[in-house]
Design a protein that fits this description.
The structure holds two protein chains of two kinds. Helix content of chain A is 0%, strand content 48%. Chain A starts with a strand and ends with a strand. Chain A has no helices and eleven strands. Chain B is 0% helix and 47% strand. Chain B is built from no helices and nine strands. Classes of the chains: A mainly beta, B mainly beta.
């Protein structure tokens, strides 16, 4: 596809369940980012990959959050033992790393933890 | 990356120019000013960026003051589809890759 694709678009989980959110970046984009956006707030950085290497995970809120990008393309954000405070939209973005530094965002995965 | 300050909300009439201000008084010499917007239920979308010269593209114009401590994003002929949250972000290139979002300005275009 032409843009960043995220799935599922909507996910409802019971507290304590594990969830996995998928991101398909734009083909050829070496950089991939995950952001968390709570209702009414700006997106908050979670983690950054360059190809398969996770270069920055300073924004991950706890060790329940884990992200991977094993082949340098598709990425998965996994949240273990979900809590109500994890309810948010999770945004994925990719970048070619070219000079403009423009990030292309997907539409996000909305997670609701009951 | 330098912090930015934006008004929480603004209104503009359809067809008029929308001027969105941003203060970034602690910006350093190698930091660029970026603007993104986020329409409801969508991911943020790149609009424009600049270092010190004014910039224009098909979406908007960016005016940066000579001392670079503030800037204005101009949407020359606002339409209802321009209703969105607009984020002003300062970042270095090509060093730090991530964008640090603030609260942004909620721009409402009124018919």
């Amino acid at each position: 596809g032409a843009g960043v694709s995220q799935s599922p678009r909507y996910k409802v989980a019971k507290r304590g369940q594990d969830v996995a959110l998928r991101c398909d970046p734009i083909s050829g984009h070496v950089s991939l980012f995950w952001y968390q956006q709570a209702l009414g707030q700006g997106p908050e950085f979670l983690t950054y990959f360059q190809n398969e290497a996770q270069l920055d995970k300073s924004g991950l809120p706890s060790d329940r959050f884990f992200a991977e990008r094993p082949e340098g393309s598709v990425s998965t954000l996994k949240i273990q033992r979900t809590q109500q405070e994890d309810s948010a939209v999770y945004l994925c973005a990719s970048s070619s790393g070219a000079y403009t530094g423009e990030l292309f965002f997907g539409e996000g995965s909305r997670l609701t933890v009951l | 990356d330098a912090k930015t300050t934006q008004p929480t909300s603004m209104d503009c009439a359809e067809g008029r120019a929308a001027n969105l201000p941003c203060n970034h008084s602690t910006i350093s010499g190698n930091e660029y000013v970026y603007w993104y917007r986020q329409i409801h239920s969508q991911g943020p979308q790149y609009i424009i960026h600049g270092l010190k010269n004014n910039e224009t593209n098909e979406m908007a114009s960016l005016i940066i003051t000579e001392d670079r401590k503030s800037s204005t994003l101009i949407l020359p002929h606002a339409t209802l589809r321009d209703t969105a949250v607009y984020y002003c972000i300062v970042r270095t290139l090509p060093g730090a890759q991530k964008l640090v979002f603030g609260q942004g300005t909620r721009l409402t275009i009124n018919p």
